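FORM 7B: Structural annotation worksheet

SECTION A. Query
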Amino acid sequence: MNHRYFFLILIFPALMLCAPEKAPAQSQVQIIRADVLEGEQTPSGPVRKLIGNVELRTDDAHILADSAFHFLELNLLRAFGNVQIETEKNELIWADRAMYDTESEESEFEGNVIIKTREATIFSQRLRYDFFFEIAAFPDRLRLEDEDGILVADRGLYFAESDSAAFVGNVQVSDESQYIEADSLYSRREIDYYELHGNVFLFDIENRTRIVGDYSESDSTGYRLVEGNTRLQRINEAETDTTFLIANRLEMFDSDTLRIVDSFGNVSIWSETYASLSDSARFDDLTEEFFLYGNARLWQDELQLSSPQIDIQLVDDEVDELLAYTRPFAATPDSASGRLNQIEGDSLRIYFEEGKVKRIHVKPNGEMIFHSNDENDEPDGALQLTGEQIIMFFSGGDADSMNVYRGIEGQYLPESPEVENLRLPGFIWEPERRPQRPENWLHPARDPIPEERPFPLPRRYQEYLEGVIQNEGIQNSE
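SECTION B. Predicted structure
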């Protein structure tokens, strides 16, 4: 997903390198009209006072205002009341008050400030704008609207030359497909590169996925990185199952033909039907395949599977089939005695039906311990055997029968105190490590972005909008 304000960070010194190396020349002020024009000598030098329907031009801008003062020796122009400025790049600025330095071409706007560029409209109470370097700084809370959605932040900076922007403090972004929170946000829109820093919260509405972390970045290829205290919560399409993932780092690839989530470092997964631990994991959302790598543990119902790698096939977010290798070990407690039935081999495949183990197939070099019960469901010894292939069949989650093929060796062990503690060489049983249901789901930390603008729209801005609507109506009629 490529969204205009998806990821940013505030790095002002780096952005300043993008500004062109040139020096401004003094801009001349041309008076187009005014109801009243007066001249006055002040301690600051001569001043032109323009009152009523003021219209001015400089080398960089066309200015409208209710009144204006031009301090000739200070190279300073002050405008008051319903100020509107159009820059040479067709950017429009509205404010209650404005100050423009004709020599440095720096300006300040105060009171109900709106700036409109080709890409966005920004609302704030203060704006500092450099006409020469085309840099806009917002020292106060701002609201940015574009065709994709809305962004709000405590302050921000925009560089037109490099089409880059930075916002810092309580950053929020919202559109039809996502909602975002972060401490700061940085963007190079010309290359579709975005970053988020600090207390990151991402809500992918389309994929029903929420993510938190310390840092995130994305680019135009559909790649997204999230790292630092990373957690992911995903709700299935039917909204009947939730998956919760914790890892040190997430990498996501999202395109029309690919939707992959890779997780790295102490990966812990919990869902309504299974849980797992591993060093890293990969999830293919399109094929519903899960891959656990490195010291993998999987718990499904009463089954625990341990293996260097486990490949899982999900169907409607439930485990349907899995393959484990190399030399995996599986254990499941007998429902009557609680004794552990065990099986291991060079590879192990498990099939499930309605969330229960249906069949376990081990090959080659299979080994098994199977505990039996008498007619009163009391422990009654165990069967220990090896074979090239072992297939165990289950009914209602309990081992029911088995087939063993080629190279069969084994023995029946009568009931004794030692039988309960029989263990295969690769024995692993760690129910205490099974990830538990998280106490808290992932939620935004801030209130939703208000639908209304932060202040009443200035008169000249409303007139501009009315003109746009009229022009669109004329074009549509043609």
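SECTION C. Observations
The first strand starts at residue 30 and ends at 33. The CA atoms of residues 381 and 419 lie 6 Å apart.

SECTION D. Sign-off
Analyst initials: ____
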